[in-house]
Amino acid sequence: MAAAASMMPHFSQQISSKNDLVPDWASQEVSTGTTIMAVEYEGGVVIGADSRTTTGAYIANRVTDKLTPIHDRIFCCRSGSAADTQAIAEVVAYQLGFHSIELDEPPLVETAANLFRASCYRYREELTAGILVAGWDRRNGGQVFCVPIGGMLVRQPVAVGGSGSSYIYGFMDSNYKPGLSKDQCLELTAAALSLAMERDGSSGGVVRLASISEAGVERRVILGNQLPKFSTH
Amino acid sequence: MEKHYTDSQVKGVSTGTTVLAVIFDGGVVIGSDSRASIGGEYISSKTINKVIQVHDRIFCCIAGSLADAQAVTKAAKFHLSFHSVQMESPPLVIAAASVLKELCYNNKDELQAGFITAGWDRKKGPQVYVVALGGMLVSQSVTIGGSGSTYIHGYVDAKYKPNMTREECLQFATNALALAMGRDNVSGGVAHLVVITEGGVEHVVVPGNKLPKFHDE
C-alpha cells in the first residue's frame, strides 16, 4: 500500500504545493489507505477492517464499511483505490450470483477468489486494488484468499493487507497459531487492527468485524473509545 | 526513527536493518541484526556488528548508509573521549546523543544516517535516545529503527511494558529482532544484543538457528 500511495500523488503534490488556493484533498484520488485482516478458524472465518477513507490529508469518510458482501457466505475486504475496489467487487458479485444460479447451489470461496484474480490480473496496469476474499462453503469450510496488487492469488490461514498491515506483521507472526477459536480470532483481529490504526495515518476510525460460518454472518463494530489499549511509551 | 523508502537507492553499502533499544529495571538492552546489503540484492556482510561502543557504558546503533554512520561514530567517539577527559568523569548518555545530533543536524544535507544511543550513567541511570535522520533528538523508553522496524511496530506496542526484568527484556528484544528479520529481506543473520547496567556491559549473540521460531516456520 505504501508503494501505491506514493505512486499516485507524485505530480499532483507538485501542483498543489505550489498553489495554496487548491487544497491537496481536491486533487487526490480517493484511497482506502487501510488495514484489513482475515483469519480462518475451525468452522469459518473472521474478517476485520478499519473505517477510514482518505483523499490526501482529508478523511473523506471516517465510518467506511470496507467489508463488502459478494454472496451470502462470501465477503471481501477492500484496500487501495476506493473506486477500483468498489467497481471490481460489483462486477464479481454479479458474476458470482449468475454462476451460483446456473449451478443451483452456493458458490465456492475459491471461485469468488478466482473471479477477483481474473479481473485484478487482466487490468493490473489500470487498477490499484489489494483484496482479501474470505468466506465459508460446504466443501472446504472457512477459507481466506489474498489477491494483492498485481493479481496474484494465494490461500493463507491468516492474511493482512493495506498500508497499515506492515506494522502488524510482527504482532501477527507471534500471536497467531493454528487452532484458535472464533472468539480468540475476533480478539486477535481487533487487537491487530487497533495497533495498526495507532501507527498508520491512513487507518483509523472504528473497527468493523464480521464472522462467517455455516450459520450465517455476524457483524459488529468496535468504537474508537472501546478499542483495546496498549502501553504506549 | 522512520523508515524512508530511499534506503535501497543509497549508493554503496547500506544497512537495511533492524535496530532497537529497550530500558528495563536497572539497565538497557540495545540490539541489532547483522546484515549489510547493497540495495537488497547482494548481502555484502552476514555478520556485521551494528552496535558500536562510543564509551564504557554508552553504545549506539546505526541505520542508514554504513559509510555515513561509520564516519559519524568515529567523530563522535573522539569528541566524547575528549569531553570525558576535560570533565574528569564518564560522559552522560545525553552528551553522547547530543554529539551525534550536532553532527547529524549540521550535516543533514549530506548525511543519511540515524542513530539510537543507549547507555547508563550515574545521573539518570539507563537511558535511550533517538537521533532521527534530520537531526531531531528524542528520549524514549523503547525505540526501534531501520527498515525492518516497520514490521514490529505493532508487536513492540503490544508487548513492551515498563520495568521488565533483564531476562524478560532480553527475550522481548530477541523476539522483536527475530520477527523483523523474518519479514524484512534486508535484515538477517545473527542478533547482536548488548546489556548495559551499572555493573558493566555484556554482549549476547544469538545465532540464526537459535532465534525463536514462529508459527509458520
Element layout with pairings:
The complex is a heterodimer of chains A (233) and B (217).
Chain A: H1 2-7, H2 9-18, E1 30-32, E2 36-41, E3 44-49, E4 53-55, E5 58-61, E6 67-71, E7 74-81, H3 82-103, H4 109-122, E8 129-137, E9 141-147, E10 154-155, E11 158-161, H5 169-175, H6 182-199, E12 207-213, E13 216-222
Antiparallel strand pairs in A: 1-4, 1-7, 2-3, 2-11, 3-12, 4-5, 6-7, 7-8, 8-9, 9-10, 12-13
Chain B: E1 14-15, E2 19-24, E3 27-32, E4 36-38, E5 42-45, E6 51-55, E7 58-65, H1 66-87, H2 93-106, E8 113-121, E9 125-131, E10 137-139, E11 142-145, H3 153-159, H4 166-183, E12 191-197, E13 200-206
Antiparallel strand pairs in B: 1-7, 2-3, 2-11, 3-12, 4-5, 6-7, 7-8, 8-9, 9-10, 12-13
What do these coordinates show?
The complex is a heterodimer of chains A (233) and B (217). With 233 residues, chain A is of the alpha+beta class. In chain A, 33% of the residues lie in helices and 30% in strands. Chain A is built from six helices and 13 strands. In chain A, the strands form two sheets. In chain A, strands 1, 4, 5, 6, 7, 8, 9 and 10 form an eight-stranded antiparallel β-sheet that branches. In chain A, strands 11-2-3-12-13 form a five-stranded antiparallel β-sheet, with helices on one face. Chain B is an alpha+beta fold and 217 residues long. Chain B contains four helices and 13 strands. Chain B has helices at residues 66-87, 93-106, 153-159, 166-183; strands at residues 14-15, 19-24, 27-32, 36-38, 42-45, 51-55, 58-65, 113-121, 125-131, 137-139, 142-145, 191-197, 200-206. In chain B, a hairpin with a 2-residue loop joins β6 (51-55) and β7. The relative contact order of chain B is 0.22. Mean pLDDT of chain B is 87; it is low at 1-11. Chain A binds chain B through residues 2, 6, 166-174, 176-178, 191-192, 195-196, 198-199, 230-233, and chain B through 5, 140-142, 150-162, 175-176, 179-180, 182-183, 214-216.
